[in-house]
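Notes to self, SEC14-like protein 1:
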Amino acid sequence: MFVDSDTVNEFKSEDGAIHVIERRCKLDIDAPRLLKKIAGVDYVYFVQKNSLNSRERTLHIEAHNETFSNRVIINEHCCYTVHPENEDWTCFEQSASLDIKSFFGFESTVEKIAMKQYTSNIKKGKEIIEYYLRQLEEEGITFVPRWTPPSIAPSSEASSSCKKQAASLAVVVPDAAQAEGLGSEALSSPSGPPEPTAGTPDDKLDADYIKRYLGDLTPLQESCLIRLRQWLQETHKGKIPKDEHILRFLRARDFNIDKAREILCQSLTWRKQHQVDYILETWRPPQVLQDYYAGGWHHHDKDGRPLYVLRLGQMDTKGLVRALGEEALLRYVLSINEEGLRRCEENTEVFGRPISSWTCLVDLEGLNMRHLWRPGVKALLRIIEVVEANYPETLGRLLILRAPRVFPVLWTLVSPFIDDNTRRKFLIYAGNDYQGPGGLLDYIDKEIIPDFLSGECMCEVPEGGLVPKSLYRTAEELENEDLRLWTETIYQSASVFKGAPHEILIQIVDASSVITWDFDVCKGDIVFNIYHSKRSPQPPKKDSLGAHSITSPGGNNVQLIDRVWQLGRDYSMVESPLICREGESVQGSHVTRWPGFYILQWRFHSMPACAATNLPRVDDVLASLQVSSHKCKVMYYTEVIGSEDFRGSMTSLESSHSGFSQLSAATTSSSQSQSSSMISRT
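result:
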């Protein structure tokens, strides 16, 4: 991916017929981390020389590598000329050479990567040329006059300039850069910014789209967005976030792709587990929230951002927690954030410019020591933690009004949990300071200032007030409600340790029932097995060390197969073991042959040593780097249905691949066992 370039040498003839420019190009290669680590580089540099001869109507492009030139020699030559029989046709020739002297013992691997990538990237040359031709047509340029000497046409210099621009548009930085062992496309335009659609399906990221929906982006920022979105499209088969949302995670990590990818993937897993995408359609807040939660949406600020008003000082936080519990409050705040994302999209269409965040106005009049009730503060801190992790860069500005003397105490408790970038967006006003210069009128139009702030606009936000104690619930009721909301997702989490698999038991009464499963491997590599037993295993023992059953909000670990059981005597394997890599999503089904007890097992995968050679394979080394400890995590859902109700035929479960890990690149094909089961990775 093109990052930057510097002009090393440039020459123009007096008559403007010849223009030679030499650039040093900086490329960011999307390569396996192991190779980058071994090579000790993050970027590679190529020198590219473009020679345009308008008189002869030729364009020559020469390139060679600067990085690792003592180990690898790459040369490429591209030539554009006029067809000898039809001067309206353009001929294109390309040649390249690769000489690998030494490359840290990976010579053969690098050569294979280079040849494979180079061959595939040649095919993209036509697409790039066609893109720039369409761009010229959109700019109204359908004909570029030929160069003529200045003595014949005084204005030929401008024509020559246009021709040079048109001829230079098809320049390609040599794809043989793959020989560095840092495999990825390395396409660039020599005229400054990178070609924006090199990795962008549907050519979506054009200048108008960026200006209209994303805002000002530097070429590097645009490149990061394209790369991260392309990675998601290639590896994540679930719902792909919109560009605006991906951009929020990039901005939250200062456009560090690795860090942004990590938190984005964690957020996508969280959204799937708790079905956040459907919260606005499927969840209705309890009546007590509608009556006593003093917050709501109220028009927009001067920048077009949706405006959310929260009268925290009038809200009985203790009463809400006692009446609802922590989980219900969290779910309500999540629904507010989802509504905020929807309103940002609406305002983007209304105002014709990108609106990606909202403004929050918090009125603290009435805030007192009651609001510092410990369980209430604990609930607030957890809400902040969840929102910070999953809705980064959605708060454009926070206006805190009428802050009382007790506010510094609350701020001391809360501020450490708020990101530094978010804290910079806070504006705090004590007393009536918000009415003076630099106050509320700088950010909100006078016509929509709420009436309770001496404005003229009636605000429909509930006034809050004390929650009646008759609505309070017992600690046991709240615990059960929190547990219900926590486990309301159809997915469950489990931890898998080395020597301690996680197992679940499914009892089958009728033969030919269908066991279905859907699970994500969130961390580490695991082996998935299915066993059958005629007798039920004993309930898991709970000892002091929790070796047989460990339960926590983050996942549990249960072992059912007794250590004295023998495979083939006490239980049998009904499916071939399936190795699942970190980041993969696996779906499948098994048609049972016999009634009895079926055990689904997720076991820690230990990588076998390579028997053919003492040297480890590259894929094994790369995979081993991903397992930092003897612990794996899975998120799973299972269901048993009757065969007559099973509508999805076995052949409809196509084998595909998904991953949150960049290194989970190998596709494993599905296999249908004798018991008519099918496993699909999507």
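- Residues 108 and 501 are 39 Å apart (CA to CA).
- The first strand starts at residue 2 and ends at 12.
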